[in-house]
Amino acid sequence: MTNKPLNDTIHRVTERVIANSRDSRAAYLELMEREGDRQVNRGSLSCSNLAHAFAGAEEDQAAIMAARGPNLGVVTAYNDMLSAHQPYYRYPERMKIWAREVGATVQVAGGTPAMCDGVTQGEAGMELSLFSRDTIALSTTIALSHAMYDGVALLGICDKIVPGLLMGALRFGHLPAIFVPSGPMGTGISNKEKQRVRQLYAEGKASREELLTSEMGSYHSPGTCTFYGTANSNQMMMEMMGLHVPGAAFVPPGAKLRQELSRAATHRLAAIGKRGEDFRPLSRVVDEKAIINAAIGLLATGGSTNHAIHIPAMARAAGIRFDWTDLAELSSAVPLVARVYPNGSGDVNHFHEAGGMGYVIGTLLDEGLAHADITTVWDGGFESYSREPGMDGDALTWRDPGPSGDTEMLRPASGPFQSDGGMRLVQGNLGRACFKSSAVERERWTVEAPCRIFEDQPSVNEAFRKGELDKDVVVVVRFQGPRANGMPELHKLTPALGVLQDRGYKVALVTDGRMSGASGKVPAAIHCTPEALGGGPLAKLHDGDIVRVCAATGELSTPSDLDSREQSPAPDPEIGMGRELFAMFRAGADGAEQGASPMLAMAGL
């Protein structure tokens, strides 16, 4: 493969990230070096320590006791309420068998919580969602604290789970680590039909039974939800960072190919430990270029806006500084090569069938739009990820994906859907926010209208039902930031705002809360920072103030004189559903642009 030289903008942003991270990255790598040198060897543990560690290992007990080969720790986010994680039930026992094939052993190091944003959407539990990421990172740290492991298999897929697993594992970056996905469920009803019924329900023209039937036609079996939201964006990023077996992201559960990819991951993890000849610790795999590649993949595929928060947090865990200026500048250079629902008509299964991640990585490398020289967990480097996996009889193979199988879904970087990545920074006297322009028609990129102020989702939907929003309006939903209430997703706003837009009104959303990868067609300035609580300018807006949101010029502003106004008081935090137990997380959280992580902020990272 002959690739063009690296794009100048990507080179410039990478060099800036490296320079901004110099001291923090050096401190991180020094810590990992020390941890690797002083890490307790299993053979030096006391007899009592060891007896506890392998008392339950059954047939692997003798091998672990004799330290015959690498002992691999599994950190699993299994539960069978998340459809994406239900297939993980059998993974550890299979991985034990596959490990024995190469003289290794496997123990489940620990489990992490794994909540479903789809279940908690619009409910009280959503206020725990973002902080579940830090809880998962802490759980991963506890799981790996036993000093028994030579490598880490990370079993997780969904929204906060992959970022949390990676953030925790990076603090044990002296060990190699591989993510092992389980794949998406089969395609259900068409996304257009699902969206149609949701909007009918929002208008009172469809019953709850009709809506539930439609939703069950979409979410119907084990596997990841098939729209291109945060969960599937996670899988894309793990490929872009070289943390999967190549092509593992979107192979469905239950397929022979899926099993063989998981087997290959187990074998490979055993091969890249410190005892072998191909040592690849996680701290060296996740570097500045890998983080840049993750951001490039997000932009090129129109991925989840949640990663404007997660990428900075994951980077910080590795001593790397990455912010929205970096993301926006990369977006100016990275073309949009994929349109997957909600940015297109087909889902991730159609995306995979059309060429998937192998095609995306190949076309980005062809045009010099990704770092080809990153260290990956797989032998052969990042170009190995431009191929797609398959089976030749019982053997796992990889092949060139060839041209796009559907040019309405996948196009080459030389002839993309649009010339930029569609993730824009808007800023002004109302703060800094993210605008996902790839999901919004260009004629809607600018909205200037009187604002209507709300402090929760139900109030917006009640005003919609009363007809109070039937006009050109900028809906401002404030006190939704990490320190106020944990920064819940505001996904329940999308149907109502979409109806208003379809009625011909100019509508936009401005919020210090989150919108997910399922964010739809309504222009939205989201993750606004500084948040309203504690001094953010959204707390000084009044009903009727003119607000301008413009993705074309990067503007988020009001002509009103905010300096002369007092802050509106924040509502008291809600209690119940355990939200009161997360008060310390809210108090310790930093801004969305820094990753909104109380764990990293309080650790001084």
TrEMBL record:
Question: Which GO MF terms does the UniProt record name?
Answer: phosphogluconate dehydratase activity
- Pathway stated in the Swiss-Prot or TrEMBL entry: Carbohydrate metabolism; Entner-Doudoroff pathway
Write down the chemical reaction(s) this protein catalyses. Answer: 6-phospho-D-gluconate = 2-dehydro-3-deoxy-6-phospho-D-gluconate + H2O
Keyword terms, alphabetized: 4Fe-4S, Carbohydrate metabolism, Gluconate utilization, Iron, Iron-sulfur, Lyase, Metal-binding
Keyword Membrane set for record: no
Which EC class, in a word? lyase
Q: How is the cofactor bound?
A: Binds 1 [4Fe-4S] cluster.
Spell out the InterPro entries in the cross-references.
6-phosphgluc_deHydtase, Dihydro-acid_dehy_C, DiOHA_6PGluconate_deHydtase_CS, ILV_EDD_C, ILV_EDD_N, IlvD/EDD_N
Q: Where is this region: Disordered?
A: 557-576
- Domain Dihydroxy-acid/6-phosphogluconate dehydratase C-terminal: from-to ranges: 409-596
Q: What is its EC number?
A: 4.2.1.12
Similarity comment: family membership: Belongs to the IlvD/Edd family.
What is the protein's known function? Catalyzes the dehydration of 6-phospho-D-gluconate to 2-dehydro-3-deoxy-6-phospho-D-gluconate.
Query: Can you say what this protein is called?
Result: Phosphogluconate dehydratase
Q: What is the lineage of its organism?
A: Bacteria, Pseudomonadati, Pseudomonadota, Alphaproteobacteria, Sphingomonadales
Gene (name only): edd
